[in-house]
Structure formats: structure tokens, C-alpha cells
Amino acid sequence: DQQVKQNSPSLSVQEGRISILNCDYTNSMFDYFLWYKKYPAEGPTFLISISSIKDKNEDGRFTVFLNKSAKHLSLHIVPSQPGDSAVYFCAASDVDSTNKLIFGTGTLLAVQP
Amino acid sequence: GAGVSQSPSNKVTEKGKDVELRCDPISGHTALYWYRQSLGQGLEFLIYFQGNSAPDKSGLPSDRFSAERTGGSVSTLTIQRTQQEDSAVYLCASSLTSGSTDTQYFGPGTRLTVL
Asked: In chain A, what residues touch B55 (CB-CB under 8 Å)?
């Protein structure tokens, strides 16, 4: 039972344009959401997070949007750069439980120069 | 400062053998996590340590899997009688505390291949 779903395995975007990565979840107990970025042969690195009490969090070129009623979040990258090419994982946790993260299967983003 | 380190980076073993995977967390981090990523899958939680105790072992897939942490630092994940389905990248992460929003920092992983 996949509690966090990333339905797009890959996405290709032109440099300078917006990248939008999507994530859906099923567990209504999740109240903290994160995006991690992963390059080949490296561990995931934390990118941005959002608490369920917010609907938007912005950090430079990265913005995460949360729609609790739809159980959907998205990561916007504007403008996209070739160095953003990586696998992006959505993750969620229930802060009343242990801090284990439940991850999606990832989306491979390719930013074309 | 040094990040999370894991060893070995790659391990090839034969079915039925035991393997040990090591994780060195960031110095001072009290919480430590093990995850694994099988081919085409997301990261799957295995076990969580707070200090030397493991309050959540719910992700360990079978009793062939065990983990320990000593001195509130290094952790070892042991897989006994390895099976081909154990082939995956095993990732360790640590966080400063077990606070609910503390960032988990990941190591580079150990790629385990069971022949």
C-alpha cells in the first residue's frame, strides 16, 4: 500500500522554464511533508519542507504547495537550471508518531540546456 | 563538517551469507535511521534509533534483519542468510534530535547485491 505516490516517473523541462513535480498521499495523519533531491551514487539531500498548517513555503527558486483537502503537494522550481537535474523524492511523516519518513518512488527531472 | 558516512559503498555477497553494513552519523546527532531503496522503489523505512534504543523497528522485513547502535554513535545493520530480494541500496540518515521536524541527513548508501 503506497501511502505517498509520485505518478510521474520522469519529467523533462527546458532551462529557464518552470518545473512542477507532483505528489499525492493517502494517510490523513501525515502532517509534515518534505522534498529531497538525489543525484546518482549520492544520498538524498533535503530541499524544502512544509507543515500541514501552511499551504505554501518558499525558499529561493523552490516553492512547495500543499492542498490538504486534495491530499496533494507540488514542488515548483523557477527558473529551472541544468544542475537541478536529479531524482526528486516526496516524503511525509506523522509528527505524533516516530519520525520515520514515508517516501514516494521519485521523479527524475531532466533540465535541458 | 563531516556528513553521514557508510561502509562499504558496495557489497556483493552470495545467497545465504551474512552481511554487516555500517553507518557513522554526524557527530552529536542523537537520532539515526535506516532505509533501503530497492530497484524502482522509493526509500523504505527499516528502523529508527534514539540514542542506543530502537523505539521503532517496524520496517525490518524479517527476523533475518537486525541492527544495533553503540555509544550513541555508530550503527550496524546485519542481514543474516541473505536472499536475492535483499539486494538494494541501504541508506542511513541521522538528525540532531528526534524532534518531529528535524532534518534527516543521509549518507551515500551501501549498494548490496546478493547473487
From this structure: 98
B102 and A106 in contact by Cβ < 8 A?
A: no
In angstroms, rounded to a whole number, what is the distance separating the alpha carbons of residues B32 and B30? 7
Q: What are phi and psi of A79, to 5 degrees?
A: -80, 150
CA distances from A73 to A11, A99, A113, B27 (A): 16, 20, 27, 33
Per-residue confidence (pLDDT) for residue A97, from 0 to 100 = 72
Q: Take residue B104 and report the three cell numbers written for it.
A: 534527516
Distance of CA A9 to the CA centre of its chain: 13
Q: How confident is the model at residue A71 (pLDDT cuts 50, 70, 90)?
A: very high
CA distances from A57 to A1, A33, A48, A53, A72 (A): 28, 11, 8, 11, 14
